[in-house]
Amino acid sequence: MLIEDFVIQSNIRRMLIRTDIDYSKMDFGTVKGVVYVRGIFQLSRLYTDGDEERTKEFTVKTLFSFEKKIRSVPGVTDVIFQFLNWRKEKGQWVPVEMKGKEAEDEEETESNL
Amino acid sequence: MRKRQNPIYKRVLHEIEREAQIHPRYADLQNQLALLCMFRGEAKRAENHFSEAIRLNRKYQDAILNLGLLYIETKRLEEAEEIFLSEVRRHPKDGFLHHVLGILYIRTGRKMEAAARIHKAIQCHSYYRDYYRKRGVWRRGLVHLDRKAERTLKKIHLDQHYAQFHNFIGLYLAQKGKSTQAVKELRKAAELKPDEFIFHANLGTVYYYQGLYPKALQQFQKALEIDPLYGMGYANLSYIYGLLSRTQEALRFMKKAVRLNPQYADLHYNLALLYSDRKQYKQAILELKKALRINPGYLLARINLGVLYEDQKRWNEARREYRKILKITPDDEHIRKRLEKIS
Description:
- The structure holds 2 protein chains of 2 kinds.
- Chain A is built from 3 helices and 7 strands; from the N terminus they run αββββαβββα.
- Chain A is an alpha+beta fold.
- Chain A has one domain: Alpha-Beta Plaits, CATH 3.30.70.
- In chain A, a hairpin with a 2-residue loop joins strand 6 and strand 7.
- Chain B folds into 2 domains: about 5-160, Serine Threonine Protein Phosphatase 5, Tetratricopeptide repeat, CATH 1.25.40.10; about 215-340, Tetratricopeptide repeat domain (Serine Threonine Protein Phosphatase 5, Tetratricopeptide repeat).
- Chain B has helices at about 5-20, 25-40, 45-55, 60-75, 75-90, 95-105, 110-125, 125-135, 145-175, 180-190, 195-210, 215-225, 230-245, 245-260, 265-275, 280-295, 300-310, 315-330, 335-340; strands spanning about 140, 140-145.
- Chain B has a two-stranded antiparallel sheet.
- Chains A and B meet through helix 1, strand 2 and strand 3 of A and helix 1, helix 13, helix 15 and helix 17 of B.
């Protein structure tokens, strides 16, 4: 049976709330089983201790587990990430320098949680 | 001041102290630190942190009220009165402020002023009518302040304060993934102040985290009984019914949420998904357009709109939406492919 987009969306929402991710600058949506996630990916304030290297390492781990969790939601056929500050290249997550305008725009992004 | 030496509170205090060192300009952390110090009986430290929170954010009402309540607890009643009078000037219809002033005047033996404030609190919110009636203070349309009533009322404002403390600890523990402990704290908050919708809503949210959906539904419904205009409560009910794959109910509640919060683009988006799942494409398109009118940069809504047009073979409109998306995100390969396919 085809899983409805709203059901997928509700599952992603719940899953996201239970992670270590600061979702206030992120948007996500579902179109015919394909999940889109965009915005700025960052860890929740509670999980950063000011050490840049450790934070980066933890962020990469969180990105991998985030992707895995989304793909495991019933009905999800694909996931498309469009983060402004992280990109997946050859199976690896790499940080991306945000352009000034993009960073400003994202400051105004409405969170959809 | 009543001291609470629970080891969880001690641990939370250490964790928030550490966070406040990393983020010294976060007013909410200062307010939380102050609450924790207050409940550990460290009044001076609590005062310093509340003051710092207010310095960082002059309009931080929770911190201002907390400082006022701390002054009441530490018997600095003149300073407390100054705070609450200033707040009541800014929010003359806030029943709680009149209620606290009433209690403050009882403590200082100013019965007439106390009665006037209690009367105002009752005028502001029907909750206070029931509240004072139950305590024998409000009878036949008049305020009666006999000795017994005075004794009861002298203590009562602290319930609000303790409830807020447990609520904050509960939310903190929930954020840390400690849902079971969080539920305990939030239940304490809701027991101390059962008429506060936000405590039930928070409890509902934690049950929702835990996957205890019937309990979550019950708490959100309680919150909505207290405040039927709490639009996000309906949205949360809708999400839970979504998780239960009961989309009929999800649709009903999302419609209510949208009616109460017509300016929330995301709610229109979710309503559009529900319509689209039921193949009510016309309504789905309408809701997506509403979302985009509110937030023209809402790319996800535009993607859904493009795909819906595509499904209905409205190629020109689909192409138009995809081109708009590519103007904003030219690197979007997925949309580029979709556009190429229909060009």
